[in-house]
Amino acid sequence: MKLLKNPVLYIVIGIFLFVGGVYWAFEYKMKKALAKPDDVEILETWELSEDLMEISGISYLEGRKLACVQDEEGIVFVFDLDKKKVVREIDFKELGDYEGIAVVEEMVYVLRSDGTIWEMEIPPTHQNEVTAKKYEFPQFEDYDIESLDYDKKNQRLLFVPKENAAEISLKKVYAFNLVTKKLESEPVFEIDLDGKIKEYDYGNEVFDNEELVEVEPADMAVHPITGKIYIIDSENHIIIELSPLGKPLAVYRLNSFIFKNPEGICFTPQGEMYISSEGSVGLFANIWRIKLEEPFQIF
Q1: Class of domain 37-298 as given by CATH
Q2: Whether the model pTM is above 0.70
């Protein structure tokens, strides 16, 4: 009977019940999240080192390698998919909020969030520093731009703002001409997605149509064969498929429990799709090779 009157016993039991309850809730949430359908199939997965914890953009290099940038350092990280590690760092000696990267033959272009683009030639393997040429566009200083990719057919780089107070309902896609090395005077097209993408709960439960997604592009990629454009939205965990002229075609969901903060997307010359996600406390940053399956929504 004395045992039942021992307050320490009740405290210990209470702690065990609390910890057990938290664990059960976490396990339930995890199983529920993993059970919900994705609209993509994961074909390969890579865990990234601390250097790429804040990976923000990826672009394909020859020889099963990806060129990567992260938010804070002016470094192009070369990640070898076969060796599963960073095999090279190319330093262009500028700090900044780097969000996008595009490889064009022997050149690399890196985008800062204010629209500034750095151009550099891939140096010989023994050289790890490079001098980059900078293209600045003051009209984008107040924008938040995270996406960049190469439009081979038209010899230009495309980018679209993630956030801009003047472009809430329409997302304008801008182009940097690689022949003239100038910004094209007008947007190449506008993406009208206002009120068109249905809301969902972590990739499964559709809400009423009054609740609609506001798109925030984190990166974009042009399919090398079809010319279709794919925008990844890390806030809403979706991939949007567009025609080469920017007409919305379909939406694919990403399970937010697996793809925590997906901010990068690119294609191989054969059309294989890769996406990347930032890490967080206790979680690795990742790169995945994926295949799109049945879309969540078709326009």
Answers
A1: mainly beta
A2: yes
